[in-house]
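BACKBONE GEOMETRY TOKENS:
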Amino acid sequence: MAAHRHPQILVASDLSLGDVVVLGASGWERDVASAKIAYDGAEAAALEAVAKAEAAANRVVDFYLVDVAVADGTPTPLHFREKFRFVGPSVRPDLGKQAARSEGDGR
């Protein structure tokens, strides 16, 4: 398959956590840096196949591929919607995932 314009990661909503997750090497992860990166259509299709099985098992819903930029092996979503989903509310930096990061949880 042809290479994508941008690498992609797979994002979903976890039904037990109620949080946005990415498909990583060990399953679903909350940290976008842990996401598996698809560099072509075949790799993206493989990610979607895993997500379809996970959705059928009622572990995740609303999965989709997201274009990312990759620097030093770490993906960063290109669209602001996914950036907000992984960081937290922009009007209250003391809330959400960004607050946990500033408290030193290592992410």
